[in-house]
UniProtKB/TrEMBL annotation:
Its main location: nucleus. It is an enzyme of class 2 (transferase). Residues 72-161 form a coiled coil. Its EC number is 2.3.2.27. This is RING-type E3 ubiquitin transferase. It catalyses: S-ubiquitinyl-[E2 ubiquitin-conjugating enzyme]-L-cysteine + [acceptor protein]-L-lysine = [E2 ubiquitin-conjugating enzyme]-L-cysteine + N(6)-ubiquitinyl-[acceptor protein]-L-lysine.
Amino acid sequence: SSRPLKKGEHPMCKEHEDERINIYCVTCEVPTCSMCKVFGAHKDCEVAPLQSVFQGQKTELNNCISMLVAGNDRIQTIISQLEDSCRSTEENSEAAKRELCARFDALAALLEEKKSELLQRITREQGDKTGFVQGLIRQYKEQLEKSSRLVETAIQAMEETGGAAFLMVTGGDTAVLSLPRIVEASKGGRLEKIEHGYESMDAFSVSLDHLAEAVCALDFNPAEEDEEYFDGEEEDVEQ
């Protein structure tokens, strides 16, 4: 019959509508009725009691269900492990990023501190040198002013026509236009001078090539070989 069976209702043979299906054809692997075995399509086939085949196949199906459930449990366990691994990987990655940023920030702060220290040394040297030179400039200006006044006095003396008046200005070591004073003034005095290359700041050159090479060579520690997280052989789970 093509109509669906209700639970507990015994199926009837399609060929013999009045016969219940009560035996199992082992040869064809289908349930059938006694009439089919005696007169029908299964008369030459090997048959077995329906109940014994039913109990055997039901036990086998129950074992298969247990295997499927166990396989599903193993798969669910693996899925949970993989999800935990994914979360741990993300958390460890964020921690590694934070640590890396902290180390680079500390290195940058150290470099910035060292740069400020060296800049301050250059600034101090600049102040010392420019202060010394500016002091020399003031001294030379004072000397120039004295020499200019001496030139004006000498020009005025040259215009003097009276011998007594002229000699009063130029005569003797203490006179305004005495020869020693003029000679000293013509030499520019005995003021200090700066040496050649005094303004150079080459001494404050810093080579950072080795640091640049070290930074370029920065890398993570060699990773150890990955461990086996799943042991045992691969299992094929029938679905």
